[in-house]
Amino acid sequence: MKTALITGSSKGIGYEVARQLAQQGFQVFIAARNADAGRQAAKALQDSGDQAEFLMLDVADPDGIAAAAHEFGTRADHLDVLVNNAGTLEHAEISVLDVSRGELERTWRTNTLGPLLVTQAFTPFLRKAEAARVINVSSGWGALSEMRDEAPAYGISKAALNAVTRQFAAALAPQGIPVNSVCPGWVRTDMGGPNATRSVAEGADTIVWLATEAPLTLTGQFLRDRQPIPW
To answer: I want to staple 31 with a disulfide (CB 3.0 to 4.6 A). Which of 57, 108, 141, 214 is the partner?
Structure first.
């Protein structure tokens, strides 16, 4: 059975990705830092007849990442799809002139360092899969071509995540493991708010496509709506 691990998947885009992959026959691991929410999300999928498990994982905690990888190894021997979805956005309206060091560090720890360390920790399992894939959930706010003085901590962290994507795409190319970044668009989630223009299903579409149907030769790209966009 194919396996997928999605970080930050107790709700929002992450949960929708997990739900869709589970419906396609994946054993999905709901990785989340909130144990109650994670278990409830996994149970909801189980109640629908899907294969789902909760995995405790706080991407901002390096020791927790190592512990999660060890625990995963007791439940599965390979990983087909890793989706680095967990992210944080504290202040969208603040200027880079005023953003605090604390916000910058907290955001970077979750949005950039977290996916890097998670990918490192789970690479041994990705290498054991026949056709593994890694998807990093980025943002248009992280595109240098679109960047402006808005959500500085978030935008900078996502731009750096795109660099992480490029590094891993090159490093894992010899194993044939594609690594891509996705901008899901402005999605109606807790982060995106009720006025966002896209549903969670629309936000999840390119991620699920990369996890299942996209050619394995597609790697090191930044995509929106299944098409490459400028960095």
So the answer is: 57
